[in-house]
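May I ask you for just one protein sequence along with its backbone structure tokens in two labelled lines?

_____
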Amino acid sequence: MSDPVVYEFHDFRAWLAAWFAYQVAEVEPELSKSEVSRRLGLPRTRSYFTDILRGKPVSAVFVERLVDLTELNRTEAKYFRALVRFAQAADPREREEAFDDVVALNRVPWAKAAGDSWEYYKDWRNQLVRALLLVVPCKGDWAALARRSLLPLSVAEIKRTISVLLRLGMVEKTSDGIWRPSQPTLSTGTGVSDKILRQAQMVQLEHVRDDLLHDPEGRPPRKVTTSLVSISGPGLDRILVRMDRLRSEIRALAHRDPHPADRVYLVALAAVPLTPMEKQ
């Protein structure tokens, strides 16, 4: 069993669990989670480390104690702190900033863990600009492209985004000088980590919330529906299957649309638990 490298993890709790497993297997077989709690300065709270692994928030003081306990070096500690901020961010903007720090501080290329997808999904502007290029025939007039977005988008941001999309092979310049996506639709595939997808989804849902809060005159039509239901386990399974089918149908409709695209919409569909899972 090899010593886990913190840079290969996108979840600080997953790394702590791997660190503990390595310590028990290779370094200190008698080590217990209660002993880890004691070494963190909590001799009377035997379950603290276990609680962290299960999702308990970690204060700044105990982040530093974990850094000392796990003997992270200076750069590893910076990355670990960024992982904690990312996991515990209180709002999507703070989480986005923390995610940028995670990416910047990682010494292992994220392509190793998640392909090039992390660079695409980490910034919502990549997805928006790519979608806009399907709607707006653009020969480099980035100001005109920005004006077609209801979300704030500067020319400088579009230029940075185009360079990312070009490097990832997601956009191309046609023979007549028009920038277009290389493929009309994209799928997340299997190479994207849950953390990356969750970050992208939270930013998108924040856009939905902002849209509901603001209703300017002349705004394009929206439709938002929600249903709060009481359901059995098997009934929920059927709902989730239908949701997967609907998602596929939405993508197919967009892909096979016989008419030229002339607008960009964010379509959101979610099933979120409001009660804990019953013990079997």
